[in-house]
Every structure is written in C-alpha cells, then in structure tokens.
Amino acid sequence: MRITDENIVNMIRELSPPSEVKLLRSWQGRTLDWKKTATFTINGDFVWIKLSALDEAHRMDGNPGVMARLCRLIEPIVGKVGHGVYDEHRLLEGIKRRQSRKAHWTEFAMKSAGSSDKEIYEALRYA
Length: 127
Fold this sequence. Notes:
The chain has 127 residues and is an alpha+beta fold. The protein has two domains: 5-78, no CATH class; 89-125. Helix content is 57%, strand content 15%. It has helices at residues 5-15, 51-78, 88-112, 117-125, and strands spanning 21-23, 26-27, 30-31, 37-42, 45-50. The strands form two sheets. The protein has a three-stranded antiparallel beta sheet with strand order 1-4-5. A hairpin with a 2-residue loop joins β2 and β3.
C-alpha cells in the first residue's frame, strides 16, 4: 500500500476530530517535498513525518501500526487520543503473534538446514 500525505491527514482527522488539521504542500514560499514527507499543522503546530516510516509500520503491523505511530506523533500536541477501532492491547497482541510465527518458522528453517542449537538461539534472540 502506498501511503500519501493526504491519507495521513485524513487518519489524523479520524483520530482527533476536534483538532484543526491542515495539509501543507508549501511553506513560506518554498515547495515542500510532499512525496517523501507529510507536512501539516495541528492546532497551529508544525508537524512532519517521513512517509517511509509509515510504510514500514504498515508493512510490519498493518493499519493498526500506522494508527499507533500517528497517535504517538500527535499526543504531545492534542493530548491522549485513542487508536481508532484498535486499542493498544489488541495491537500489542497482534505484534506478539506475528513475532511468534516468525520465530517458529526461523527455528524450523534453521533446524532443516542443520544449524546447531546455539546458532538457532542466537538467531531467535534478535527475531
């Protein structure tokens, strides 16, 4: 999925409806790099985030991960916000399940390749 700056502004409006969010494509007469970063104002405060960071969050954790990342971004400005339909506990449980599956398949592949238990332990420590 290709996340654009317009998508991000719409997600922030969904997370914090009373906030005033404006998308910026230029600032003080200069054109901003809106294809690589999302730049916007929330209640008058200037905020930006790289789109590649949100693409990575989407690849790892799906839409809930993107929403959680945006929540952490805007909480200092607007206060505590929810994660939309996803609560924090549900998000963390999904992350743990994916890590467990990844560890299981890594262990299986390394055993099939003839790795020692010590090598498997070292690989799983960082999985």
